[in-house]
Specification:
heterodimer, A: about 325 residues, mainly alpha, two-stranded antiparallel ribbon, globular, B: about 425 residues, 2 domains, seven-stranded mixed β-sheet, five-stranded parallel β-sheet, 14 helices
Chain lengths: ~325, ~425
């Protein structure tokens, strides 16, 4: 997609989402914020996947972001939405840049297991801290915005608008990154690390950059989730949460920066309606639907969009340009 | 090619069915005559067997009787429905991640349009739901979770809890064990390493310190929740040789503790004290060590005082599901009846079907009958129930499980008075406790 078109699309989509927010029923507003928050984490997972590495511990940064917001309110007395989210960003950046020094040296299953271990350590530490409510977690008050105290409804709406803007910015920046030499180097790394090294790019730098991006988006997602839920707990760092992020990444696909948003939306909508339909067998519905999606779209739901686009394009010029993606059937080399 | 066509078709179906279900929901919510009640507990996963399914069954027995007007005892002349409104249950699963619990609560209220919600077995869920319930101004009855923090962290307008908090059963446990064994010298602990286990041990230990200050702690084990294997911890317990082992294990973990500990003889010389042992009472009758102290988090099941309502509940439950109602069923029944009692009270005052705000006002400080005895909403400004707590010692009589040395501690004996936090009350030496000797 030409850059200009992309910019217009992303601005239009963000504005549309913000406008729609004024007429959405309460539950849908809330569901949309949770989708955007989770999708931010999945963006990071997908960015790492494009470099051929799977983080089984993205819950670590999701939890760090949430606790940064929670602790910032509880102990530092910060209540401002932007201030708290900035805190989440800094927390993700600092912890990611430190742990990244270690993580950039590992690949494949070692990277996955190591990231899993780190997130479970955080879970263990938080579960033992009675001051922070142990596994029960603690409550976060609704934020103020630029010094103004808002009613609960207005605060929810402000979080919604902020979530839309934040997602728009992340998609825009993410696309720029993926289309940059550094972004493409990630895919090269996935195909053959030795060749990349001979080309004069340090693989560790590529991984480190990806890891930093992933930790920052994950902690932003965690912070956003904390603000909208009003309650946080160590569960956010539990391995099953990280597993869900990977699953959504595969579901949405990794071929485009916006794919995780589509994947998360599909996942959450199926889940909520399956829960309503069958309160004690909803996992079966969710599982079956997701299996079908994976069978029909092995490269994720986004492949539906890209194949449509290719069809249109091949009608015009006849030379389809294939976007790289992780193919579930073929797997990674 | 055909794949993508199929896929497009599939997507279209998805969109259509999603839209349809949204429309159906909107139509349902429009008629507000029946009292639409959200019922949330663990209907899937590990906690569904011991807690969630008995709770759901207990709710169904009571709701059926409410709608048919067949409740006995003090409810016998209360007519059909709660305050004249038939109760229509909507079920939602608690076994989802913490974010989805809040999302699903909002969906129950805002999408499905329920008038009130009863539910939540985990304290983490209760703490997360409470501020949302206040925000959405929806009457919410917590039926099973134990955390004392729910009403100690702020005044609540819309949230009630119809059973005693988790400190109460441990205070009663300390009282029971010292009366059973006046020469008690040492204890050990076996609790799960999460909020419930940590708090239970803390409250038991601090209560014991007040009642019998010289008791020493031999070992305290905090294995992971749902660990399933307790070999190392059981060895530590066996070596410690304390008089009593306190455990707040529940459900499958508690059963595993019995099944793994009993054959090794760990509890031959040490008395095992299970604060939630009641759920294994029937199912593990042959495995529970003789002399094990069993609690039921209140006066549910085997500790329920004789009453017409209790006899009816046991029979109706047994008839419907072919088994005895365990205590989670009792506490869910207790919660649904709170709604019935408050709605009836509000209807009587108004002379017609009450609105939810009137039901909420009537619930404050209400005293009502349940299969597990009389429940008083006496603490936290009339939002927190106080209930009696029973403990007994397990014994097999002719191959059937039974209890000896049963003691029922009155609500005023083991619950902190209104306005006092539980930790302050324990530290004060249970100031003002009224215990019958």
């Amino acid at each position: 997609m030409p850059e200009k078109n992309f910019n217009i699309t992303i601005i239009a989509a963000t504005l549309l989402l913000i406008t729609v927010g004024f007429i959405l029923p309460g539950w849908l507003t809330f569901l949309t914020i949770s989708i955007l928050a989770k999708a931010l984490v999945v963006v990071g997972v997908a960015v790492l996947m494009r470099g051929g590495i799977v983080s089984f511990g993205q819950g670590l940064y999701y939890c760090i972001g949430a606790y940064a917001v929670g602790l910032g309110g509880k102990f530092l007395g910060i209540t401002d939405l932007l201030g708290l989210m900035f805190l989440a960003l800094v927390a993700g950046l600092v912890s990611g840049s430190l742990l990244g020094l270690l993580m950039k040296r590992y690949r494949e299953i070692f990277f996955a297991m190591f990231s899993l271990a780190l997130s479970m350590i955080l879970f263990g530490v938080l579960s033992k801290s009675q001051l922070l409510g142990s596994t029960d977690g603690f409550t976060i008050v609704k934020p103020t915005i630029l010094g103004a105290t808002l009613s609960t409804d207005n605060a929810n709406h402000a979080i919604y608008i902020f979530a839309c803007l934040l997602s728009g910015i992340v998609i825009w920046l993410g696309q720029r990154y993926l289309r940059s030499p550094m972004g493409f180097a990630g895919e090269a790394l996935r195909d053959n690390e030795v060749r990349v090294e001979y080309l004069g790019v340090a693989p560790e730098t590529i991984i480190y950059t990806k890891y930093l991006i992933a930790s920052v988006t994950a902690s932003l997602g965690g912070g956003l989730m904390a603000l909208t839920l009003g309650h946080i707990g160590p569960e956010m760092a539990y391995w099953s949460q990280s597993g869900e992020f990977i699953f959504i990444a595969l579901l949405g696909g990794t071929s485009h920066i916006a794919a995780p948003f589509v994947g998360t939306a599909v996942f959450e909508f199926i889940r909520t309606f399956a829960l309503e339909l069958a309160p004690n067998a909803w996992q079966i519905i969710l599982g079956v639907v997701l299996i079908f999606i994976i069978i029909f779209f092995p490269s994720g739901i986004w492949s539906l969009f890209s194949s449509l686009k290719e069809k249109l394009r091949s009608g015009e010029s006849g030379s389809p340009s294939k976007t790289p993606s992780v193919d579930l059937k073929k797997g990674d080399s | 090619m055909s794949l993508s066509i199929k896929a497009t078709r599939f997507c279209k179906h998805m969109v259509v069915s999603l839209t349809l279900s949204t429309i159906c929901v909107a139509v349902n919510a429009a008629s507000d005559d029946p009292l639409k009640l959200g019922l949330v507990s663990f209907y899937s996963g590990g906690a569904s067997g011991p807690v969630g399914i008995p709770s759901r069954n207990g709710a169904d027995v009571i709701i059926k009787a409410i709608n048919e007007g067949t409740l006995p005892g003090s409810y016998s002349n209360s007519g059909k429905g709660a305050g004249g409104r038939p109760v229509a249950p909507v079920y939602s699963d608690e076994a989802v991640d913490s974010a989805a619990r809040v999302t699903e609560y909002r969906n129950l209220v805002q999408r499905q349009g329920v008038d009130a919600v009863i539910g939540y077995a985990s304290s983490g869920s209760c703490l997360a739901i409470t501020p949302v319930a206040e925000e959405l101004k929806t009457l919410t009855l917590l039926y099973y979770c134990g955390s004392t923090r729910i009403f100690e962290e702020g005044a609540r307008k819309y949230v009630f809890r119809t059973m005693a908090s988790q400190d109460v059963e441990n205070i009663a446990a300390a009282r029971y064990i010292t009366s059973l064994n006046p020469k008690l010298k040492s204890i050990s602990g076996m609790n799960q390493n999460y909020a419930w286990g940590q708090d239970s041990w803390r409250d038991f230990k601090e209560s014991l310190d007040q009642i019998k200050p010289a008791v020493s702690v031999k070992t305290k084990q905090f294995p992971k929740i749902f660990a399933g294997q307790y070999g190392a911890e059981l060895t530590a317990l066996a070596r410690s040789g304390a008089d009593v082992v306190h455990s707040s294990f529940w459900g499958g973990d508690m059963e595993a503790l019995i099944l793994q500990g009993a054959p090794r003889g760990v509890f031959d010389d040490q008395t095992l004290l299970l604060t939630t042992g009641g759920t294994a009472f029937y199912s593990l009758a042959d495995q529970i060590p003789e002399g094990t102290v069993i609690g039921a988090r209140g006066q549910g099941d085997m500790f329920a005082p004789e009453s017409e309502l209790n006899t009816w509940f046991r029979n109706a439950y047994k008839k419907a599901y072919g088994e005895n109602p365990t205590f989670p069923a009792y506490y869910m029944a207790q919660s649904v009846l709170a709604l019935k009692a408050a709605a009836d009270k509000a209807a009587k005052a108004k002379g017609g079907a009450p609105a939810m705000d009137e039901v909420r006002a009537a619930m404050k400080g209400i005293e009502y009958a349940s299969p597990a005895g009389t429940i008083k909403m006496a603490r936290a400004n009339g939002h927190q129930a106080i209930t009696g707590v029973g403990y007994g010692t397990f014994t097999l009589v002719d191959g059937k499980p039974s209890l000896k040395n049963v003691r029922r501690y009155s609500a005023e004996c083991v619950n902190p008075p209104a306005g006092t936090s539980s930790s302050d009350w324990i530290k004060s030496g249970f100031l003002g406790a009224q215990c019958k000797q």
